[in-house]
Design goal:
The protein contains 10 helices and 6 strands. By secondary structure, the chain is of the alpha+beta class. Helix 2 crosses helix 3 (65-82), helix 5 (103-120) runs antiparallel to helix 6 and helix 6 (124-160) packs across helix 9 (256-275). It is globular and about 75 Å long.
């Protein structure tokens, strides 16, 4: 009798254990399918995009992830492109995909259009004259911001080519030295440094109007006995200015959080600028405040620093590597 009872218990356990496991898988599969089905049967395009965005975030190992990931990026990009000049479509995107891949860009574009719309709603008698000016400002602001970012990135690239530390200034890298030559091609340097100031201007959207910015950047090479020691590019609140130009949102001098966000965004920009010549996998080093980014390899060390004085003087310094030479 005892033996029979034991055999019966074994049979029951063997029969019920797989069923529990299968039941768990079925529950998981059903949740995955329900979320996936919304990407197919939602009534509107945005509803489908929102459902796809949630599915990819909530089901990283979902059975249908490859299918959804295959069509979602292209469909989402096409929608954002169509919505570029349509505030209602941009707002609808932010409602359906508040954490979508392009939510930050959509919000920035919507802010620009709302500023423009604010001008349109002003006194009708002055509107015709003002609208023309605002339209020009919008185009000019975009162009000048992009030019500022391009010029700053190009200067950083030229700095990153410097390898002639300890050599006479005349033997420095031609692309960098060209910034310090006069019209005849002669170097214009003092005894202890070569220096050049760049005056850059651009505009960014503020709360209700465009904010004009004028920035003086100083590019310099420090010398000792006529030989190259190091080089730097510096300017007042330089990283705040770069961050706001990229984000298309004015950074207030009174806002510490806005300053911190701008520093982080600027560090990302410089990481991208330096990656081809000084890849992070090989050259990235630990940062210690006020450093924001450090690359040290291939004979050169580059430090991006945030200014700690008032007003902050932000700088990127290029000097010889501190790493011991490879045997």
């Amino acid at each position: 009798m005892t033996r029979c009872f034991s055999w019966g218990l074994c049979v029951v356990l063997l029969a019920t254990a797989p069923a529990c496991a299968v039941g768990s898988r079925l529950v998981g599969s059903r949740s995955d399918y329900v979320a996936y089905r919304k990407t197919r049967v939602a009534e509107t395009e945005l509803d489908r995009l929102g459902a796809a965005n949630r599915y990819l975030k909530d089901h990283p190992d979902g059975r249908y992830r490859e299918e959804v990931a295959g069509w979602f990026p292209g469909a989402e990009q096409r929608y954002v492109k169509r919505a570029h000049d349509r505030p209602s479509m941009l707002r609808a995107y932010l409602t359906a995909l508040p954490d979508g891949p392009r939510a930050a860009d959509v919000q920035a574009r919507l802010t620009e259009l709302e500023i423009y719309q604010g001008y349109q709603n002003r006194d009708a008698q002055r509107e015709a004259e003002r609208l023309s000016r605002v339209a020009r400002e919008l185009g000019d602001a975009t162009e000048t911001r992009q030019a500022f970012v391009r010029q700053l990135s190009e200067l950083v690239k030229r700095l990153s080519t410097l390898r002639s530390f300890g050599k006479p200034i005349a033997e420095g890298e031609p692309a960098l030295l060209s910034e310090f030559k006069d019209a005849s091609g002669k170097l214009e340097c003092a005894t202890d440094r070569c220096s050049k100031t760049f005056l850059l201007s651009y505009a960014v959207p503020g709360q209700s109007q465009f904010v004009a910015r004028d920035l003086a950047l100083e590019l310099s090479i420090r010398l000792y006995a006529g030989r190259i020691v190091d080089a730097e590019l510096a300017g007042p609140e330089l990283w705040s200015r770069l961050g706001e130009a990229v984000e298309r949102r004015a950074v207030s001098e009174q806002s510490l959080s806005a300053r911190v966000d701008a520093l982080a965004r600027s560090a990302q920009v410089l990481e991208n600028v330096l990656e081809a010549r000084l890849p992070a996998a090989e050259c990235a080093r630990e940062v210690v405040a006020p450093q924001l980014l450090v690359r040290d390899c291939r004979g050169v060390r580059i430090e991006m620093r945030a200014g700690v004085e008032e007003p902050p003087r932000d700088v990127i310094v290029v000097g010889p590597s501190r790493r011991p030479p490879t045997p």
